[in-house]
Amino acid sequence: MRTPRVVAPFFGVVGTVAVWWLATALFHIRPLFLPAPPDIVSAFRRQPAYLLHEAWATVTETIIGFGIAAAAGLGVAVVLAASRTVERALLPLFVALNSVPKVSVAPLLVVWLGFGPRPKIFMVVLICFFPVVVATMAGLSSTPAELSDLVRSLSASWWQTYVKVRLPWALPQIFVGLKVAVSLAVVGAVVAEISNPNRGLGAVIVLSGTSFDTPLAFAAIVLLALISVVLFYLVASAERLLLPWARAITG
Amino acid sequence: MISLVEVSHAFRGRAGAVEALAEVDLEIGEGEFVAVIGRSGCGKSTLLRLIAGLITPSSGRVRVDGVMVTRPRPDVAMLFQQPALLPWRSVRDNVLLPAEILRLPRPAYAERAQELIETVGLAGFEKRLPHELSGGMQQRAALCRALLHRPRVLLMDEPFSALDALTREELAGELQRIHMDLRPTTVFVTHSIQEAVLLADRVVVLSPRPGQVRKIVEIAIPRPRSFGHNAHLEEVTEHVAELHELLLT
Ligand SMILES: Nc1ncnc2c1ncn2[C@@H]1O[C@H](COP(=O)(O)OP(=O)(O)O)[C@@H](O)[C@H]1O
Ligand SMILES: [Mg+2]
């Protein structure tokens, strides 16, 4: 018997919430430590406009940063993969840069970019950029030998090979990179907001900490999780729509 | 049409050079169908890749139509063991790939693609993506693509070996018809003796590494030939036995 794809995750979520609720009730856990689900709902209902407004700030930072990172990452990878020399010159630098914990530069970003949304967007770009570059380069260098032989036996030019075979073949892997990036994007935005809390759900979490309003922090966290999930599914759906053949080659 | 003179080829690897072919001499006439058999690793693919211009020999000369082969030529087409179709293109667009790459006029070739697709029995599947087809149908599409721009030489590297027995026979029959029809000079690598005897004018037997021409067997049976019952059963059996002997010893 086949069940629709949303049924299992739905029961997973409902079950988890039920266990959590039961635990808070059974062990008399105070809302300050771990609020029960209804506490979180009422925290949201106390000031929905405020929370949605801050959520929107986080969403826009995330989407703008992700968009910039995707475009820049693709561009850089395409250039890098075009020439062995450029690749060898720059790839070690990228690997080194990528191993810098991005969180550690959050305070510096304020110095460089001020207090507005720009340091947050930049943090999202920093976090999303490398997964896109790495996945795209991997995709561009994964063309199967028989396809290279095929186009070579037709005397295809470098450009024809690139546009007609290498790039489309890389698309499924590019989407792997985009999915990793989009799931990190919200993290980037929140980290930047927490280190410079003037707007966004990160700021809400910092504020709730100073006023011991744990249910409010949880409401913000639930919103963050929702944003993350929705953004991920948007990218995954775009892939299914644009590359119906991708499943066939990734097995 | 194709001539190899004292062709040797060695691959340089980490563990020293691997001698794949040694002193191969071979003349293949215009329109001829030559099958190449030999044990796995004896240099059959290397031989084809040399003729295709995908690699250049360590020593010796490879000529196609009197011209030294130094790089791939558009009038030499190749068919591989895998269909090597582009998974994002429909059957028709896959078949039309050579026309695109060689910048040939699309309308005329779209018509030809349609004819070829019908010849191999893929009518009705033009708009399907490769993963929606069976292995045999994919290989038929690849055959159409190889024939699209009327190549004068057709090189095939174990094209049917990934298919089940019945599909193989079917495709071999189709290949015979296509060859009788269009007469491309054909070099057909196979490890099936039956296939070689069914299809070829001559069968080249390569010895194990390094590959050398061990013997060339003429198959003088009139076409069309068929597997199963036919009037030349005795000759077929004789050739099969002889080739078997040559491969095993
Ligand atoms: N690119 C390569 N690099 C190194 N050795 C190779 C390469 N291609 C083939 N060889 C070696 O050359 C020999 C002949 O290979 P191949 O022509 O593929 O044989 P066949 O097609 O008859 O099975 C084998 O021993 C193989 O390992
Ligand atoms: Mg081979």
Give the biggest beta sheet of chain A: none
Strand content of chain B: 25-35%
CATH fold descriptor of the largest domain in chain B? Rossmann fold
The overall average pLDDT of chain A, rounded, is: 90
The secondary-structure class of chain A comes to: mainly alpha
Count of DSSP strands of chain B: 10
Tell me, what's the shape of chain A? globular
On the 0-100 scale, what is the average pLDDT of chain B?
Answer: 91
Total domain count of chain B: 2
> Would you list the SSEs of chain A in sequence order as H and E?
HHHHHHHHHHH
Uncertain segments of chain B: none
Rg measurement of chain A, Å:
22 Å
Please write the string of helix (H) and strand (E) elements of chain B. EEEHEEEHHHHEHEHEEH
| Overall strand count of chain A | 0
Please give a handful of descriptors for the protein shown.
heterodimer, A: 251 residues, mainly alpha, MetI-like fold, 11 helices, B: 249 residues, alpha/beta, Rossmann fold, 2 domains, 6-stranded mixed beta sheet, 4-stranded antiparallel beta sheet, binds adenosine-5'-diphosphate, binds magnesium ion, ABC_transporter-like_ATP-bd (chain B), transport (chain B)
